[in-house]
Every structure is written in C-alpha cells, then in structure tokens.
Amino acid sequence: QVQLVESGGGLVQPGGSLRLSCTASGTIYALDRIFWYRQAPGKVREFVASITWRNNKKDYNDSVKGRFRISRDAAKNTIDLEMNSLEPEDTAVYYCNVHSAWGQGTQVTVSS
C-alpha cells in the first residue's frame, strides 16, 4: 500500500504562485496514474490534474489549464503541482491520490 504525504501549501495573494509536492512511500507501478484533487469548503472534491508514471501523460481540469503544471520525479518518488496565476477560487485543500491511497491534504489559501 502506497502512503502519500503532501506539502507546500500556504497563503498566497491573487496572481501568486505555489508549488505543492506529494511524496510517495511504497511502490508506484509503471501503469499507475497519480492524481491531484482539491476540495473547497462546502464543495465536492474535484479533479485538478493527473500524470501517468511511465510515459508522463498529463491531464488537467479546464479551470487550471495553462496555470498549473504537474510533474513527477521517479528517482525521488514525488509528484509536484506547480500553481501559477492563483485565484481566490483555487482556495481549497489539495490532495494527492493513487488507487485507494490518499494523503492528508495541504491547505492552499488565495487571498489579499
């Protein structure tokens, strides 16, 4: 069973940037897809971005395309989410996920 730990959240002003990191312990298999989700207060958890472990194929929610970038480092077993041009609507707890494993989440708050 993979265990995931997210880090890098915080408070940032609109237009600012943050880089989230998800560190995985255990084995991530070549065919696995790793996801970033987010959940804002009072809202359902939503897909943000995903990446396949073997061939680095990326997908994004339309609301973050062109602003967010997902990447992975196989040597370090990390999956990063670089977030630029942040908006108040991006405020949420961000979670990393692979199969049934979820991290504890990291809070991102975008506010002036």
Commentary on this structure:
By secondary structure, this protein is mostly beta strands. The protein contains no helices and eleven strands. The strands form two sheets. Strands 2, 4, 5, 6, 9, 10 and 11 form a seven-stranded mixed beta sheet that branches. A four-stranded antiparallel beta sheet has the order 1-3-8-7, with no helix packed on it. The mean pLDDT is 95.
What is the typical, i.e. mean, pLDDT? 95
Helix content: under 10%
Radius of gyration: 13 Å
Strand content: over 45%
Low-confidence stretches: none
Q: Please give the largest β-sheet.
A: 7 strands, mixed
Total strands: the figure is 11
Total number of helical segments?
0
Secondary-structure element string: EEEEEEEEEEE
Secondary-structure-based class equals: mainly beta
How far do the termini sit from each other?
A: 40 Å
Shape: globular
Helices and strands in order, then pairings?
Elements: E1 3-7, E2 10-12, E3 18-25, E4 33-39, E5 46-52, E6 58-60, E7 68-73, E8 78-83, E9 92-98, E10 101-102, E11 106-110
Parallel strand pairs: 2-11
Antiparallel strand pairs: 1-3, 3-8, 4-5, 4-9, 5-6, 7-8, 9-10, 9-11
